[in-house]
């Protein structure tokens, strides 16, 4: 029998815990369809997914489990909360435990941490990322994201064990006027960087300009207008990921290097 890892004490602080049914649907849709995430889950011998900091009620954890099981039906899902009062009994094939950035001694294939680091200071991000990355499975992934209360505006960073890989912004086509409106929901590592001279500000400013240029497509709806906007951005040298499938959401995804903070001293360390 293989030895079990000693469970370390929880690392982190109790946050507000606000949550809501279907709040994280946009990131869930992206996870289910992303090639890297799908491959990672399918190739893992025994895939384990951790929903870190699910909040006062575990609705989004159950939703994550149901959606990811369309990719890998046998995956295990564990919800972790640092507040012991929020740990609930297992249900629908999902179990819950107390834990923080140390991941309660688990070695997950995928960790989702949404609206957690937003409530921490910016200089805490690097250490939190490193702690989670150190406890991932060898090919594990971390999604650190933020969204508004209704899940209409979302942003997340995808990381592997060694480095951030990409930034993705996703929003409801019918409730957002301009791409830069998503700035208020940038992950903590970038939300204070939306200023002149930073790459994220350059990207969002260019996205607004391209959106204005794509105005002739407005009669066809915001999704078509965004598709033209993304094409204009790519034509101007921005590494916007192209999606071949039809998208319910407006999605802007770029490699991390395209938006990483310009000051190396302030950039979270890469283990």
Characteristics:
globular, Rossmann fold, 8 strands, alpha/beta, methyltransferase activity, methyltransferase, single chain, 271 residues, Class I SAM-dependent methyltransferase, SAM-dependent_MTases_sf
Summarize the model shown.
Keywords: Methyltransferase, Transferase. This protein has about 270 residues and is α/β, with parallel strands linked by helices.
What is the CA-atom radius of gyration, in angstroms? 18 Å
Distance separating the two termini = 31 Å
Indicate the structural class.
alpha/beta
Highest CATH level, the class of the domain at 1-162:
Alpha Beta
How would you sum up the major sheet? 8 strands, mixed
Q: What series of H and E elements makes up the topology?
A: HHEHEEEHEEEHHHE
- Helical stretch tally: 7
Spatial shape: globular
CATH topology of the domain at 1-162: Rossmann fold
Mean pLDDT rating? 92
Contiguous runs where pLDDT drops below 50 for at least 5 residues: 265-271
CATH architecture of the domain at 1-162: 3-Layer(aba) Sandwich
Q: Which sequence of strands runs across the widest sheet?
A: 3-2-1-4-5-6-7-8
Per DSSP, what share of the residues sits in E-state strands of 2 or more residues? 15-25%
How many E-type strands? 8
Helix content: 25-40%
- Determine the CATH superfamily of the domain at 1-162: Vaccinia Virus protein VP39
Organism: Nocardia lasii
Protein name: Class I SAM-dependent methyltransferase
Keywords: Methyltransferase, Transferase
InterPro entries: SAM-dependent_MTases_sf
